[in-house]
C-alpha cells in the first residue's frame, strides 16, 4: 500500500508532484457520483484524492460497477483486504473494462490505484467507461463519443488526387541535395 512506501525525494518527488497536478477533483467527483448512481452504494462523493483513493483502493466497488453495467462480467469479487486479493479485483475490473470497449490507452495499471501512483489515470479510465456505459443502457458521463463519419470518394475524385504534383505542395526555394554524401568520406 502507499503508506508502506518510503517518501519520494528528488526527481521522483518532482515527477510525482507533476502527476498529481493533473488530477482533477471535479472529474473525480463526477466519476464517484456516477458510480453511486449506477451501483446504488452509499459512498462519499467528494473528489479529493484521499476520498477517491479510499473508496476505490480495494477494487470491490469497481467490480460491482462493472457487474451493474454488464451483469456477470466479473464472476468472483474478493472481499478480503489482503493486497493480492485487492489487486486481483482491480485487474478483473481492468480486463472487464477493456471488454466493454474502453481503449487500452485509457486504462491504468493496477499499481496506479493500489499504490496510489497515478489517480488521474484512474479518473480517465472511469470517464472512458462512463462514455461506454450508454451502449449498455446505463447513464453516461463525460463528453459524447464521436459518431462515425465515413467518407466515400468517387473514382474520379481519387484519380484527381493522384494528379497532384510535388511542386504544388510548396517550394524548397532552389535548395537541392547535391553534394550530400551520406556514409561516403571525402577522398583526397
Automatic annotation (TrEMBL):
GO terms for molecular function: actin filament binding. One of its GO terms (biological process) is actin filament organization. InterPro entries: Calponin-like, Calponin_repeat, CH_dom, CH_dom_sf, SM22_calponin. Gene3D superfamilies: Calponin-like domain. Residues 25-134 form the Calponin-homology (CH) domain. One of its GO terms (cellular component) is actin cytoskeleton. Belongs to the calponin family. This is Transgelin. The lineage of its organism: Eukaryota, Metazoa, Ecdysozoa, Arthropoda, Hexapoda.
Amino acid at each position: 500500500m502507499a503508506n508502506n512506501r518510503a517518501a519520494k525525494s528528488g526527481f521522483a518527488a518532482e515527477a510525482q508532484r507533476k502527476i498529481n497536478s493533473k488530477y482533477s477533483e471535479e472529474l473525480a467527483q463526477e466519476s464517484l457520483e456516477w458510480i453511486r448512481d449506477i451501483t446504488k452504494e452509499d459512498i462519499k462523493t467528494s473528489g479529493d484524492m484521499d476520498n477517491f483513493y479510499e473508496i476505490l483502493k480495494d477494487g470491490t466497488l469497481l467490480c460491482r460497477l462493472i457487474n451493474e453495467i454488464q451483469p456477470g462480467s466479473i464472476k468472483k469479487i474478493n472481499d478480503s483486504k489482503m493486497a493480492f486479493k485487492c489487486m486481483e479485483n482491480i485487474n478483473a475490473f481492468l480486463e472487464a473494462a477493456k471488454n466493454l470497449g474502453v481503449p487500452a490507452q485509457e486504462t491504468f495499471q493496477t499499481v496506479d490505484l493500489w499504490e496510489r501512483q497515478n489517480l488521474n489515470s484512474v479518473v480517465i479510465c472511469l470517464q472512458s467507461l462512463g462514455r461506454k456505459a450508454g451502449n449498455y443502457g446505463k447513464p453516461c458521463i463525460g463528453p459524447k463519443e464521436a459518431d462515425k463519419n465515413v467518407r466515400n470518394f468517387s473514382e474520379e475524385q481519387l484519380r484527381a488526387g493522384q494528379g497532384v504534383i510535388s511542386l504544388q505542395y510548396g517550394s524548397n526555394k532552389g535548395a537541392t541535395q547535391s553534394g550530400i554524401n551520406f556514409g561516403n568520406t571525402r577522398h583526397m
